[in-house]
Amino acid sequence: MKRKVLLIYTGGTIGMEKDYETGSLRAFDFGNIFEKMPEMKLMECKVFVHPFAKPLDSSDMGPEEWKIIARYIHKNYHEYDGFLILHGTDTMSYTASALSFMLKGLKKPVIMTGSQLPIGDLRTDAKENLLTSLYYASLYEGDEAVIQEVAIYFEYKLLRGNRTLKYSAEYFDAYASPNYPILGQSGVHLNIIKENLFRCKMQEDFHIDEHISGDVLFWRIFPGMNFNHFRDIPKMKVLILQVFGSGTIFSSEGTQEILQEIRNNGTEIIVVSQCISGGISFGKYENSNVFAKIGAISGKDMTAESAITKAMHLIDNPRYPGKFSDYFSKSLCGEITN
């Protein structure tokens, strides 16, 4: 029996081709993908294509588009064995992270991929990314899907979606998962590292939770910044501070006072690291103690993309009664190393 994969094309470089008259890139009709890539007809799975009515640059992908994707997967969940989402590379890690929190009780593969060069380019990375992603999206052992999470496949590596970040705009090997090992790697053989795969411990049927709040602010700390500017920031539900190393911040006079003012206004403060690898450890250095004193939340080894989308999902979400900090500090779908 051939597995059925639903390919959702949202936009991005992978769906572009060059207009040889103007030299510029334009989106081609993704409904004709089988003509562009006849190799897809040789796949051991059946591929069905659903393109966005208007392909979007990844910089235009946000909460409303995340909801559209989640709803479409929910609508078709029982009709298909796996899902492949083609997406622009710049914000793919945000979408992958958001979907990982929104898709509850997921027992089927949701694979995301894109490319650095258009699919019509002679040197494109699009074809390999697309074809191998289809293999992963249709990979089953008996009646059970091998992959049961949101993952990104790019340049021969399968990565947990909410652990990824885009670290290169230049190289084909554009994504990294610095704090979690790869899920699989393609070469002569299609390899899966089963002990790294996520399995939902909750016994629940698949459903979606669309709750996304925009009441989040992300701020990168830098040497010499005027911390008094925080007093001019309008009140928000969550402030995410990207700080130095394992959780340090300058000990200038008034730092704790200003942060405490923000907390007293009802704002949750989350701390993540500017380092690509590693995480937050309050108390390791004296200049991190201020965060423990004001009741800030450690982002541990989460990526900034995952911390942002997780906070957006949890804020005022009626499905998560109780303290925001308790839920944020808990690994919901493999986004934190326990």
Automatic annotation (TrEMBL):
Residues 216-328 form the Asparaginase/glutaminase C-terminal domain. Keywords: Hydrolase. It is an enzyme of class 3 (hydrolase). Pfam families: Asparaginase, Asparaginase_C. The active site is at 13, 89. Signal peptide: none annotated. Its EC number is 3.5.1.1. GO terms for molecular function: asparaginase activity. Residues 4-194 form the L-asparaginase N-terminal domain. Belongs to the asparaginase 1 family. This is L-asparaginase. It comes from Chryseobacterium camelliae.
